[in-house]
């Protein structure tokens, strides 16, 4: 095989969006993924896509169709409840209900229809950032650029060693990811700020709903009685009995944050979860991954035509946006989480933490300036992409 100009590692949202743009710009590349075509994107992950991400993708000619918009969220605590119309406050910028596995499947389908070079079942076994060279599925490539879009356990990022600085922070909070075969309880997102821990209700489809249940970091979903879990979840959400008998599957999700700086070294570039991890509070990870990919693609296409300026500035362009988004997610996690003060190394009493959480919820309801800021940050209208 002739050496491609770019090797992309990972067929997640970041790698596939990058491939889509290089394909359209006729920049020679290959994309490798360790999983089979059927396996990629099957884990339950993101389910909502931001308005600005949709605009970015449509600008690149990617055909997107959605079943539903999500325009509102509701805060529920044991003493108060109110619905917050963030799309209204942001000049009509909703989220779109679009599960990540469908997004990945649509991207793979669209690329295959164009005869794109996607190599599944090609795990990367060696990366030489200086060569540069990369071995995947037994084949060694010597491209001009290697892109690590290989997610949280990125082998490409690890190969960079001390060329980059990594800030990695495990949090003391664990979320149980509960995928339920049931219609949504209401037509919007619910965030329950409960003393036993945070719980959430997120739309995924007509007969499919995602729930989160916060538990101490040493509790696993596998150890809990499913009936007890359903009961606790429904109670925290203020909807006792609503989940009785509903079919569920449960995964543990340990929260952590990570930032890598810079996001490039020589011929190697990192995008998406390979570069940064953000907690699911506020639903930002996939949206950041897509925005990284779009920016890097613009840089790679310009470099292909002899202008390296945008490519050289890639990390400097993306890091401030990522840091601001981490800041929002970190704050929102403290509003939602019963265990966030542990995560931050604090020793506040549970009663103090609960009072502060409820205080934020009331303030979001009563303070129009705070509400406006929150709506913009939540909908992703606060920063340039
Ligand atoms: C429970 C949960 C809920 C989430 N909810 C949201 C949300 O609501 N909104 C949001 O925006 N984000 C959300 N996220 C985050 C979002 O899912 C991630 O940010 C997103 O998947 C990142 O995309 P990516 O392309 O960078 O990496 P990934 O999707 O992880 O893709 C990486 C790819 O690289 C491949 N790979 C890995 N190692 C190798 C190797 N050695 N060789 C070859 N291939 C390899 C993998 O097979 C995979 O296909 C959520 C995440 C979780 C876990």
Observed structural traits:
12 helices, FAD/NAD(P)-binding domain, single chain, binds flavin-adenine dinucleotide, alpha+beta, 385 residues, eight-stranded mixed sheet, D-Amino Acid Oxidase, Chain A, domain 2
Q: How is the topology of this model organized?
A:
Elements: E1 6-9, H1 13-25, E2 29-32, E3 48-50, H2 51-59, E4 68-70, E5 73-76, E6 81-84, H3 86-89, E7 95-97, H4 100-113, E8 118-119, E9 124-128, E10 133-136, E11 139-141, E12 145-148, H5 155-159, E13 165-180, E14 189-192, E15 199-205, E16 208-216, H6 226-236, E17 248-261, E18 264-265, E19 268-270, E20 276-277, H7 285-304, H8 309-312, H9 314-336, H10 340-343, H11 350-366, H12 368-379
Parallel strand pairs: 1-2, 1-12, 2-8, 5-14, 12-19
Antiparallel strand pairs: 3-7, 4-7, 5-6, 9-10, 10-11, 13-16, 13-17, 14-15, 15-16, 17-20, 18-19
Helix pairs in contact: 1-4, 1-7, 7-9, 11-12
The protein binds flavin-adenine dinucleotide.
């Amino acid at each position: 095989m002739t050496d491609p100009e770019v090797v992309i590692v990972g067929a997640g949202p970041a790698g596939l969006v990058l491939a889509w743009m290089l394909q359209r710009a006729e920049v020679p590349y290959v994309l490798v993924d360790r999983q089979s075509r059927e396996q990629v994107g099957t884990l339950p992950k993101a389910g909502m896509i931001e308005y600005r991400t949709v605009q970015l993708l449509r600008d690149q000619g990617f055909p997107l169709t959605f079943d539903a918009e999500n325009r509102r969220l509701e805060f529920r605590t044991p003493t108060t409840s109110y619905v917050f119309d963030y799309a209204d406050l942001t000049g009509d910028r909703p989220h779109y209900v679009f599960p990540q596995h469908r997004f990945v499947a649509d991207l793979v389908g669209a690329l295959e229809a164009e005869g794109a070079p996607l190599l599944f079942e090609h795990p990367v076994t060696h990366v030489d950032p200086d060569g540069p060279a990369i071995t995947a599925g037994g084949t060694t490539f010597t491209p001009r650029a290697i892109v690590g879009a290989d997610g949280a356990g990125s082998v490409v990022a690890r190969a960079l060693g001390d060329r980059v600085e990594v800030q990695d922070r495990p949090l003391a909070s664990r979320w149980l990811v509960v995928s339920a075969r049931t219609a949504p309880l209401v037509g919007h997102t619910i965030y329950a700020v409960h003393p036993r821990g945070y719980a959430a209700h997120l739309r995924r489809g007509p007969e499919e709903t995602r729930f989160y249940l916060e538990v101490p970091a040493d509790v696993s979903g596998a150890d809990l009685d499913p009936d007890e879990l359903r009961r606790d979840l429904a109670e925290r959400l203020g909807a006792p009995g609503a989940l009785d008998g509903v079919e569920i599957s449960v995964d543990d999700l340990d929260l952590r944050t990570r930032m890598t700086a810079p996001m490039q070294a020589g011929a190697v570039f990192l995008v998406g979860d390979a570069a940064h991890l953000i907690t699911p509070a506020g639903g930002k990870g996939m949206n950041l991954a897509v925005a990284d990919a779009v920016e890097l693609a613009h840089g790679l296409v310009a470099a292909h035509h002899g202008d390296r300026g945008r490519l050289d500035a890639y990390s400097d362009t993306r890091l401030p946006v990522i840091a601001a988004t981490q800041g929002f997610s970190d704050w929102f996690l403290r509003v939602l989480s019963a265990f966030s003060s542990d995560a931050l190394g604090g020793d506040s009493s549970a009663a103090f933490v609960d009072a502060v959480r409820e205080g934020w919820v009331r303030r979001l309801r009563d303070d129009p300036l705070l509400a406006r800021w929150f709506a913009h940050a939540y909908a992703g209208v606060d920063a340039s992409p």
